[in-house]
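Exercise 7.
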Amino acid sequence: MDFWVGCVSMARLRLCQKNTMCMNRTILACFFLLTSCSFNKRVHEDAYDCQKIAFWNVHRKGTNIFNSHISREDIKAAKAYGIQFVRICLDKFPSKQRDFLIGNADNYIALDPIDLAFLKQILNLFAEEEMPVVITMLSLPGSRWNQLNNDKDDLRIWRDVNFQQQAARFWQDLARELQKYSIIVGYNILNEPHPERLFDEASCHIDAINQDEVQQLLFAFNDMVIKSIREVDKCTPVIIDSSAYADPNTFKRLRPVRDSQVLYSLHMYEPYDYTSHKHNTGQYSYPGKIAEQDWDRAALKAYMDAVSTFQRTNKIPSNRILVGEFGCYRRQKGLPQYFGDLISIFDENNWHWAFYAFRDNWDGMDYELGGKRLPWEYWKAQERGEDYPLTRSTTYPQFDVLRRALR
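Solution. The predicted structure, written as tokens, is:
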């Protein structure tokens, strides 16, 4: 009110000077000034509302739970260990449809309402326990997760822009439904994208692929999805995996997007011949020579140097880098030192990290079980569809190194 009184007083002064044109200009200037004040206030309010990104301003340590069922007990246990966020995938949840929430990845139409209600029940558990959540998708329209696709890569999303548009619409629909969940601190668009497979179905070796073309595909896709999300949710951070299954080396060519509330994510399972249960049947240990190459802390650090270079080149702060996954088959020799070296590198760079996995349905990455084989009775119970009580412990070296890092 005082603002307008001042404006009117100025106008009256111009009237006394019999300058009608100047009066009109004065009133018009007052109008624009008031409008500008209101606009600036709205911008300030929007910035105030968009505080989810502030969660990532502090160095965060989390885990992944990619199970078909998530219990309150697991969330409480994670919180007790000092885990600060949980990354969950939605594709493993039960559904009457072909693909959870999507309905059918061959043709997305709308979110399945029954699946959406189930997801909200899970999110309510996290909210009640005050545990932040990152949501990721293993499948999107035109990109069905290979374990749900007869172990075959589904690359249609990279060939057909129609599927990319469906994926953008899916994320917009999901963001519209979930934007009021304050515990959601990240939408991780697609877990481990690998458009490299378009050019070489037998290999994903980044040095043999035209990375400029790959990165253009990934950038255009990410840009489309983020813009679609921002139409309904301007605040929830978006997380982008690098290509070649989130390989750190692809950060050499990764293109940053035009959004200030984005994190860039890598996954670290190298050397894969060591961490993989199928590839390492006991012949490799860490540190040491693995598949004709020496691996130690220095070698691990060198493998991830491209991420630091990406940061310097594009002025990306460390609190916008997330190691979305790292892990190893729990029975590999030298695993505690492998984890210790990795975590020391992550912490040295102030990157957020999340180990894979916490109380996973597959025992191979359930580090609370230590390094011993499970008893035969466990597998018999699995065949019968029965529960078998597992003996977990924080004192196993495989988990103790994580527990100490979390605290």
